[in-house]
């Protein structure tokens, strides 16, 4: 039951010792404030990195290099050319892969024209599944589909920078562009992604069906590299290993030749990044809890002084019939109020600071940092920690107070 007299007494004690209370509470305030700021900043860093992480978090990329081991009469140093036959073999022999994506390009940049306007752009041959590996921010129209692949259609999806340079303010949808003397109809427009320079470069890319690129530009049966997405629950490393095994068999590469095929496992890289984030969060908690503990020790010491100053008062209470529990609860509640109020103010200030920073940088490119915020779960945990810490800080002084003998206390000067 809510005891108004007891809480009025606690408030009166706080008011009588404003400076002492303020200095004691500052340690707790600063610890929680630092916790909110450090965790909020860590969250902002994490959001910024993941925002720039526009590749599927479980993607695998595999490409060819030169062989390093002689095999079946073939010398070392041989370059392996990936082909369309590898697509069929991989789809059949690597059932763990949800997506097998061959990719190729017109190496370098090529002059692309729209009437009198022309410039140099990257031209990549892709399959419909490409956006599952790397996000494509479509602004108009569509991406490549299966009929485009089977029909070797001369269609193009162009970046926003291509639109700016070749079309200006004219809507490019349905118009034609000339790539090395071959006309392609624009069926989609995408916005370049990434940081400023990367976004500009990405926006200067043109996607066409891979099969069309192979036939139209004399790249018949040539694949530059593969992208893969594992099925749900399958580690990317399993797919990566099986893909290399299949490709070694396909191209007569020694089973122990680890240099013939290069690869990048995004899942492993992402796990390392996640480990870094966990380390930052752990460090933030360690620093903040250390500061909070220092504040709590200060609270406990102050409460010991309070008990000493109020020895006579406690003796009178006990002489009038106050139980040890009532004495303990009074001291513990004073300690909880002191730590909880100071901590909640620190949490409020820290959260407000993160919200202010988030508002200031919204829509701006500030590198690997975006939307710093304090999680509600963390806030709840901090509040619970404060209540427990406040109780612990007051427990020792409260126990000492409960053991005060009325006769001894009344003689105290």
Automatic annotation (TrEMBL):
A GO CC term attached to the entry: plasma membrane
Domain MacB-like periplasmic core residue range list: 21-241
Coiled coil feature spans: none
GO molecular function, one term: transmembrane transporter activity
Compartments, as annotated in UniProt: Cell membrane
Bilayer disposition of the protein: Multi-pass membrane protein
Signal peptide, first to last residue: none
Entries under InterPro entries matching the protein: ABC3_permease_C (IPR003838), MacB_PCD (IPR025857), Macrolide_Exporter_MacB (IPR050250)
Bilayer-crossing regions: 21-41, 283-307, 336-358, 378-402
Keyword Zinc attributed: no
Keywords on record: Cell membrane, Membrane, Transmembrane, Transmembrane helix
Every ABC3 transporter permease C-terminal domain range: 286-395
PANTHER family xref list: ABC TRANSPORTER PERMEASE YTRF (PTHR30572:SF4), MEMBRANE COMPONENT OF TRANSPORTER-RELATED (PTHR30572)
Protein family per UniProt: Belongs to the ABC-4 integral membrane protein family.
Name recorded for this polypeptide: FtsX-like permease family protein
Organism annotation: Hymenobacter jejuensis
């Amino acid at each position: 039951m809510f005891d108004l007299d007891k809480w009025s007494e606690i408030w009166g004690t706080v008011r009588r010792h404003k400076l002492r209370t303020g200095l004691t509470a500052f340690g707790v305030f600063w610890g929680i404030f630092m916790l909110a700021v450090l965790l909020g900043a860590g969250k902002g860093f994490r959001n910024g990195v993941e925002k720039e992480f526009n590749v599927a978090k479980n993607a695998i990329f595999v490409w060819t290099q030169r062989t390093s081991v002689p095999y079946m009469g073939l010398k070392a140093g041989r370059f392996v050319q990936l082909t369309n036959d590898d697509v069929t073999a991989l789809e059949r022999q690597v059932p763990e892969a949800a997506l097998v994506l061959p990719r190729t390009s017109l190496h370098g940049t090529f002059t692309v024209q729209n009437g009198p306007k022309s410039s140099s752009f990257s031209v990549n041959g892709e399959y419909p599944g490409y956006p599952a590996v790397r996000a494509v921010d479509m602004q108009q129209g569509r991406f490549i589909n299966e009929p485009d692949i089977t029909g070797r259609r001369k269609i193009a999806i162009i970046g926003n920078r291509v639109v700016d340079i070749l079309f200006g303010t004219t809507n490019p949808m349905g118009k034609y562009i000339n790539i090395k003397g071959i006309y392609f109809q624009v069926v989609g427009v995408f916005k370049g992604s990434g940081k400023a320079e990367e976004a500009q470069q990405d926006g200067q890319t043109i996607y066409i069906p891979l099969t069309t690129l192979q036939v139209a530009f004399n790249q018949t049966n040539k694949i530059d590299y593969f992208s893969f997405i594992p099925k749900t629950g399958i580690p990317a490393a399993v797919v990566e290993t099986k893909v290399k095994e299949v490709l070694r068999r396909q191209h007569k590469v020694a089973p122990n030749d680890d240099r013939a095929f290069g690869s990048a496992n995004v899942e492993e890289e992402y796990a390392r990044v996640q480990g870094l984030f966990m380390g930052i969060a752990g460090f933030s908690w360690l620093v903040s809890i250390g500061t909070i503990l220092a504040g709590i020790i200060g609270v406990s010491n102050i409460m010991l002084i309070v008990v000493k100053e109020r020895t006579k008062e406690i003796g009178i209470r006990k002489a009038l019939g106050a139980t040890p529990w009532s004495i303990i609860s009074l001291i513990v509640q004073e300690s909880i109020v002191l730590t909880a109020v100071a901590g909640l103010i620190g949490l409020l200030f820290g959260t407000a600071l993160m919200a202010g920073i988030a508002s200031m940088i919204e829509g701006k490119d500030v590198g690997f940092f975006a939307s710093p915020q304090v999680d509600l779960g963390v806030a709840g945990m901090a509040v619970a920690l404060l209540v427990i810490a406040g109780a612990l800080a007051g427990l020792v002084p409260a126990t000492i107070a409960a053991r005060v003998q009325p006769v001894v206390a009344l003689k105290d000067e």
